[in-house]
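Limitations
The structure tokens in this dataset are predictions for the assembled complex, not deposited experimental models. Users should treat interface geometry with appropriate caution, especially where small molecules or nucleic acid strands are included. An illustrative entry is reproduced here so readers can see what is and is not provided.
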Amino acid sequence: MSRPIRHLLSLAVVALAVAGCGTSDHAMHLALAALETPTPTSPASPASKPVTCTNLTSSLRPPATMPVPGAMPQGSFMRAIQRRGYLIAGVSAGALDLGYLNPATGQIEGFEIDLVRELARAIFGNPTGHYRLLALSVPQRIPFVNAGKVDIVVDAVTITCARKQQVDFSTVYYDAQQRVLVLSSSHATSIRDLAGRPVCAAAGSTSIDVMQSLPDPPKPVGLPLGADCLAALQEGTVSAISTDDSILLGFKAQDPNTKLIGQSLADVPYGMAISKAHPEFVRFVNGVLADLRADGTWRRLYDNWLGHIRGANPRLPPAQYAG
Amino acid sequence: MEAAGIAAAPPTPRRRRARAGSALQWVRERLTTTPGRLVLTSIVVVVGAACFGIIATGAEQSRERTVSAARTATEPLLVNAVNLYAGLSDANATVATGLLGIGGLEPQAARNRYLQDLDRATGALTALTRGAGTASAQASLGAIADDLPLYSGLVETARTNNLQDFPVGAAYIRQAATLLNQTILRAADRVYAIEAGRLYGDYRTGTSSATLVALGAAIALGLVPLLLAQPYVTRISHRVLNVPMLAATFVLAGVSVWALFALTSEQRSLAAAQRDGSDVVEARSAADILLSRAQGDLSLTLVNRGTDISDPLDFAAVLRVLTTGELAPRLNAGFASYWAAAKYVQGLEGGGQLEAAIRQLPAVAAVSQRLDRDLREEIAVAQDRFDHATADAASALDGLWLAIPLAAVLAAVLALLGLRQRINEYR
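Predicted assembly:
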């Protein structure tokens, strides 16, 4: 009588042991949960402390005689670049005709890129294969050049007194104006009509600071890249874009249903940013820029890239030197 | 009497006690005579058989429902949740890679793949909307249905700009990817978690030891009175064999052994369905999704050039999960070559050679697509194993739903017959 019961019990024990095997590892959930990265937030524009300086756009004087391409002076930063075999420049990849990745060619092209090319020509004699381009966002530009990740930044960097404390600038290679771009249907005729309304610019750019300093300021919206502002304007999430006319005209070329309004809000001189550790490189770059102005190359590049939308008479103030 | 009851002690316990007392009295009277004791024995045996029939049928039915739910409802829904997630991830990777085609033109193959991916995702979305039971799953599915047209709209705007060589197209790809990664895929992950929870619930129920304990108890309730009754009947009737009672014992014992074997074998098959089937489907799908994510992020770092903020971080997170996570040892060697290729491209871009990186991208995409094909084959094999194992689990229980109640009734009738013979001897 007790034997069949014992047999049944042993069966039940076996069954319980089998039941214990059914464990799950939630493989997919675990793997995907590990992907949860915090939602990116656009970096806040660094609090601009009012720094003043004299001779904002003046830079170091070029050497009396420029070194021969391919024979950079011993011990100079240019020599280090020459030994490395290429110049590496931080550029923009989204500003039409200044520096942008051309979908048609798969290459970064534009006015600023050709300037980088001329710098490479001055160092190596032949630019082809001797320069590399690293696309940077606005907040990356100065840290990258100071950390030596790029030799120079040619990326529509506005020369400001605050930035001059962190990096050296070349002489001005392009003089832009901060203006306002709206949809053609907009009734606004100047930035004053946009007080309190969302107006876009690249996060961390001086355009945001300029907007904030207006007497009747709009609500600045900082997006990671300038091109994000054009998308936001087309989608109606911002009322306008306010930044350099050089960039705005590129936007206008991509969307004919937009227009520039009002007067210039600020003068925006572009300089090439170089680490303060390499003053000889600043002088060298200024020498190259002086040559490009003198031999007509600057004008040819301007006509090639910017002339058709920015007019035949570019404003380019004479180079200023101090020290 | 009622008034008196209210006035005095509470009536009901007393009445109950009185009734219990009279029932006890009845039993006590029966216990004094041999036929009375035989009548009591019949009652206990019949009640035991009835308990066996009811509890064992309940246990069997619970298993049968669970296996059927896993086979036809919860696992197919989980596969749909995986397809939704995987289809969208692959769409994103395909778009980001395809729009980097040199010449502004997206390769036709990439366009077709994107459309197939969307098709796969929307098909899964429809099936899930029809089948998902919980309100929170429905809410997430509704959110996905709302956002999908926005996503595809952003992709088309990006294409249109790209075709005109406008760099603003990159901004739209970025927006589309952000919408997908930050909103749509998170909702898809919630749906996945809910459906996975339901399937795991089925696995737990379908392999639960509580069901076996219940079955064991049912068997004890049915068999113990029968087994105890027979020596007793033998003693008072001085006959060695009571054939109908012995037959009742064999019927009950036979169906008990059958039920125990059926339930343990069902449970073994269901555990195998999970281990070799759906768990493998999940692990391989996770790898496939992460691969799409990696490829998408790699392309986006090239498309977005200079948006340090989110995408390279994301790529690094995917890399970490795939190389150091618990998935890592389960991935085939093809992943190593993918990572090598992807890192090489990332290195080119990081070193200022974007054009070279873009030229290399189709080769990396080809490696990723080969891996994707392998993974999908492995997923199909695992799904096949799941189907077979759950079919085994279902067929293990075949016929039991009828056999248990029939055996219980038969055992009760036989036992009554056997006891009746003895009771009649006293009339």
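Some entries come with short summary sentences. For this one: Chain A touches chain B through 68 residues (CB under 8 Å).
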